[in-house]
């Protein structure tokens, strides 16, 4: 579904990502781990077209996407979350999830017909928002301001925001950070449920226990290079991974 071939990125003299190859198949949950500064976020930024690569190729659904904009890939179904959830703290959960169609300056006649379409779309969106909030146990808080949510709830709200756009693959950037153990179990359940429903994931996280619980396969980066890939069992027993990531030699 997603293929990355020989992808590289330099920042001045720093080679943040070096010739990385990676793939994610439909229905998989794939992890991306590595110590601080390994290049994980840079790789995510390139895959989601927030950053242009210096060399290499990215394909999504058998199509090269390197020349696309970040907006283009969103419309193709490739979406991502951020380490720090981006939402609207002063808006309610409902408002955060409602998508408002852009005003495009149509005349009154078109606006009349479009108005009907927008009303229908808004009703559908509202129903979808309510369904998502219920699935993520946030419905009771639907009228709360987002700024009153816990870190874990904000991560779930961020996940809901991306789900509103019907992604085919979701890139999750540190979904477990700042999430307490009880909520982490719920996060695991939600991700596994979404996979059962057909979602595909590429996930960055420093919490290896979390990564081992949810992932089918894992890639490990260090100093911008891929040093290992394999099942959770293979990665957890890999000496090079232990050495660079856990500081165990
Ligand atoms: N915009 C930038 N300008 C200059 N250097 C950058 C930039 N972004 C990242 N880097 C450098 O590239 C390297 C990889 O950084 P990156 O943030 O991708 O690592 P990471 O694995 O995501 O780290 P962390 O786990 O701490 O988030 C680091 O040396 C970092 O300092």
- Contiguous low-pLDDT stretches (5 residues minimum) are 100-107
What percent of residues adopt helix (DSSP H or I)? 25-40%
Shape: globular
Radius of gyration: 19 Å
Number of helices: 9
> Structural class, please?
alpha/beta
SSE succession: EEEHEEHEHHHEHEHEEHH
Strand order of the largest sheet: 6-7-8-3-9-10
Q: What oligomeric arrangement do these chains adopt?
A: single chain
List the helices and strands and how they pair.
Blueprint: E1 2-11, E2 14-24, E3 29-33, H1 40-47, E4 55-60, E5 63-64, H2 70-76, E6 78-80, H3 93-97, H4 108-135, H5 151-163, E7 169-173, H6 181-196, E8 200-204, H7 208-214, E9 217-222, E10 225-230, H8 232-236, H9 239-245
Parallel strand pairs: 3-8, 3-9, 6-7, 7-8
Antiparallel strand pairs: 1-2, 1-4, 4-5, 9-10
This protein binds adenosine-5'-triphosphate.
Adenosine-5'-triphosphate binds next to strand 2 and helix 1.
In short:
By secondary structure, the protein is of the alpha/beta class.
Explain this structure to me?
39% of the residues lie in helices and 24% in strands. Residues 100-107 have low confidence and may be disordered. It is an alpha/beta fold. The protein is globular, with a radius of gyration of 19 Å. The strands form two sheets. Strands 6-7-8-3-9-10 form a six-stranded mixed sheet, sandwiched between helices. Strands 2-1-4-5 form a four-stranded antiparallel sheet, covered by helices on one side. The longest helix has 28 residues, at 108-135. A hairpin with a 2-residue loop joins β4 and β5. It is built from nine helices and ten strands. The protein binds adenosine-5'-triphosphate. Keywords: ATP-binding, Nucleotide-binding, Transport. Residues 2-248 form the ABC transporter domain. Pfam families: ABC_tran, BCA_ABC_TP_C. This is ABC transporter ATP-binding protein.
């Amino acid at each position: 579904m997603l293929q990355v071939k020989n992808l590289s990125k330099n920042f001045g003299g720093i080679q943040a990502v070096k010739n990385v190859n990676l793939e994610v198949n439909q229905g998989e949950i794939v992890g991306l781990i590595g110590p601080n500064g390994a290049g994980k976020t840079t790789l995510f930024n390139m895959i989601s077209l927030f950053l242009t690569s210096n060399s290499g190729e990215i394909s999504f659904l058998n199509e090269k996407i390197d020349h696309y904009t970040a907006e283009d890939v969103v419309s193709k179904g490739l979406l991502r979350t951020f380490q720090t959830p981006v939402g609207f703290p002063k808006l309610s959960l409902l408002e955060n999830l409602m998508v408002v169609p852009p005003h495009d300056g149509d005349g009154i006649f078109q606006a009349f017909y479009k108005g009907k379409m927008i009303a229908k779309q808004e009703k559908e969106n509202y129903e979808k928002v309510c369904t998502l909030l219920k699935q993520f146990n946030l419905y009771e808080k639907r009228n709360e301001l987002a700024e009153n949510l816990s870190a874990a709830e904000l991560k779930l709200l961020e996940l809901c925001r991306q789900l509103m756009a019907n992604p085919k693959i979701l890139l999750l950037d540190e979904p477990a950070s700042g999430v307490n153990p009880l909520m982490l179990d719920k996060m695991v359940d939600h991700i596994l449920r979404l996979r059962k429903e057909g979602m595909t994931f590429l996930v960055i996280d420093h919490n290896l226990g979390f990564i081992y619980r949810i992932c089918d396969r894992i890639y490990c980066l260090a100093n911008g290079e891929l040093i290992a890939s394999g099942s959770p069992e293979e990665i957890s027993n890999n000496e090079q991974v232990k050495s660079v990531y856990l500081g165990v030699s």
